[in-house]
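Box 3.1 A note on notation
Throughout this textbook, protein chains are presented in two layers. The first layer is the amino acid sequence; the second is a token string describing backbone geometry. Keep the layers aligned when reading.
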Amino acid sequence: MKASVIGATGFAGAELLRLLDGHPEAEISYITSESSTGENIATMYPHLKGRIEKELTSMEDLNKIADASDVIFIALPHGHAMKIAKTLKNKDVKIIDLGGDYRFKDVKVFEEWYKTTHEDPDTKAVYGLTELYRDQVKGTNLVANPGCYTTCSILSLVPLIKAGLIETKGIVVDAKSGTTGAGRGLKLGSLYCSVNENFHAYGVANHRHTPEIEQVYSEFAGEPVIIQFTPHLLPVDRGILATCYAQLKPGVTEQQVADAFTNMYKDEYFIRLRGLGACPEIKDVRASNYVDIGWSLDKRTGKIIVMSVLDNLVKGAAGQAVQNMNVMFGLEENTGLKHMPIYP
């Protein structure tokens, strides 16, 4: 498969290149950057030296890129993918958008939370959380790759929601992200002196991933679900840790909880159930496409606390995109993604 990456110089784009280089069925075709056109990607990212020595091009001629590609990854901020996908609508090329443009069933929700008018409102994509929507991913040409916070949070509670074991009111998601989640651009809050020996919340009560999580929870609950979502910035490079709190329904047992997770994820290669009492750590999944999930039941409060971790650049972005690509092209889902986590 010939794969092109639009926006290859961001953290997610560079991670895509790393994964595609090691993919036995993929060949990198075009890589683009509007700010660094003409430069060699290995000059910007020396870790690619001797492996990917390609010149960054402009995406001005999208048709040329599409004609030379079987799949195009769009690793750009929101607002760009809708224009690209609209332009290439009649091309025989699959598109995987790592941004937020096509993640919502209701375009009005996107416009409300992203403060942007959608330029391609009639085009519908499949939400690319493969563990939940595998069959739909198989048959589509446009995938909306989920966000990192959302992937962690959704996979944590959907088994319990689907099994009817928790109340849908009062769900709290308390999540933390490494600094690469903020992107590669220069931002005061991402500078070393701002992040080092520091820890803080942001986007309180208005983070854009909130309605994305609610959309999937609501689908599996069969009713509208409103959550409290608070993200935090960790002074680390990579990782997402989501701690999710929900009220158990009366009489729910530890075995029922364990069965709900096992029934849903027993055949999922990338989900590792750590079980009751386990507290997964972000180092357990670093540089891998795994999601580790553990949980505890608080008998005093009647709540369940589910903890999950993933690498925000892999399962939270590039790895998930490659996983979706594999499914779209009928390959084994873990092709090119069997890396063990690195430790320490």
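The CA atoms of residues 297 and 304 lie 5 Å apart. The chain has two domains: 2-124, 149-312.
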